[in-house]
Every structure is written in C-alpha cells, then in structure tokens.
Amino acid sequence: MFQNDVIGIGLYLGFIAAIGLPVILFKVCCNPPFEIARKLYHLIITLSIFPLVTFFDAWYMAVLAAFSLVLLGYPALALAERAAFYKRVMVERQGGEFRSSLIIVQLSMSILIFIFWGLLGEEWKYIAVVAVMAWGLGDAAAALVGKTFGRRRIIHPLIQGAKTYEGTLAMFVVAGMAIFLTMLIYAGQSWQVSMLAAILVAPAGAIVELFSNRGMDTMTVPLAVAFLVTILMSSLAFLGV
C-alpha cells in the first residue's frame, strides 16, 4: 500500500506538470487576456482534486501529496520571481500572490480530504470533489463574467473589491452546473438528487464567495459547499431517499 501511495505522489505531481505545461506555453506564445490566463492556472489546481482522491490508498498520503506540491512549489516560485521570464509566465495582482494562494488552496483540499475521507470514510470523499469543482469553476465564471460584462456593482461594507450582480449570477449558475454534473457523473447519484443539490447549495456558495475577502473564497466556498451537501445527503439517507 505504501509503495502504491509513493507512486501516487509521483503521478499527482506529474499530472500537475502535464496540464500545467500547455497552459504555460499558451500564456507565453499567445499572451491571452490577464483574467483568462489567471483562471487557466486556477483550473489546473481545481482539476488536481481528481488525482488526489484517485491515486492513493490512504487519505493521509493524499494530504502529504497536496503539501508536497507546496514544499516544491513555494521555494521554486520564490526563486523564479526574481527572473524576468516569470512575468511572462505568471499572472499576479501583487507580488507573491501565487505562493500564498498555493498554500491556502492546498490547505483547503487537505481539510476536505481529512474530513470527507479520513474522518467520515472513503464513501464520502466524493463530497470533496463536488466542493472543489463548485468553487473552482464557479469562481472562475464569477471573475470572467464580472470583469467582462459586470455593470451593476454590489455595494456593501463587508464586500471587498468590485463585485457585480452579473459575476455573482455567473457563480451561482456555473457552480450549480458543476455540482449537478459532479454528483451525477462522478458520484453516481440520480439526476433528481443531483439537481436538488445544485438548486439548494449553489446559491449559498455564491453568497459565501461574494462575502469572502482577501482570496479566502479558496477555503470558505469549498468548505461551505461540502458542509451543505453533507447535510443534504445525510437528510436524504435518514428519510430513506
């Protein structure tokens, strides 16, 4: 088992490299708009939840793999930031953003894996995937739609930055689609249960994202989605559905 998990770490890091390299080449060669390039990197991390819950026999080795990316990536990014080429490859709003985001997102995934695999058992780990996909795709849609088409800004003392009604609606719709499809295809739930989860959970995810500041939606949104899906599925099981 341990040998398989060690191989799993290599496969996980290889997965990151395999989908990351085309994105880097696309960024360098095609110079896409800032927000599109930013969300392509965002998508790499989002999709990395699949190898984390697939390549390992033990939950704690999946957590170790998540932090191995931090141990390798953080110092590598710190060194690379000094190079001129770094600005052509990365897209940051402020210096060191990638490094800090890497820690938060890997911690978020580790918490999800610990709770929905380590504590509750392997049969619940699909919730970690649902939560990450809802956050990853929904947040990307909110940013892209909000910055491109957003015209009506949401003004509230607890909301940081220029968030719009259009962006929040996009978060709700895309997060809902992500929840529905992940529950249906990955978790093998019925379309009725999958639709119910999307309708009930996606609005809450959009609201949490709206009020999450300083990049903490990386943690608050997936944890909120996971918590609500768990309540829903536990309730349906209790009712015998």
Folded structure, characterized:
- The chain is an all-alpha fold.
- It folds into two domains: 1-106; 125-241, no CATH class.
- It is 78% helix and 0% strand.
C-alpha termini separation: 35 Å
Strand content: under 5%
The sequence of SSEs as H and E is HHHHHHHHHH
Number of domains: 2
The proportion of residues forming helix, as a percent range, comes to over 70%
What form results from the Cα inertia axes?
globular
> How many runs of DSSP E, i.e. beta strands?
0
- The total of helices stands at 10
List low-confidence stretches.
none
User: What does the main sheet amount to?
Assistant: none
Mean pLDDT: 90
Q: What is the gyration radius calculated from CA atoms?
A: 18 Å
Secondary structure class reads mainly alpha
Draw up the topology in text:
Elements: H1 2-30, H2 34-47, H3 49-54, H4 59-80, H5 84-89, H6 97-119, H7 126-149, H8 165-186, H9 191-211, H10 217-238
Helix pairs in contact: 1-2, 1-4, 2-7, 4-6, 6-7, 6-10, 7-8, 7-9, 7-10, 8-9, 9-10
Task: Provide a short characterization of the protein structure.
78% of the residues lie in helices and 0% in strands.
For the structure shown, list the relevant keywords:
10 helices, 241 residues, mainly alpha, globular, 2 domains
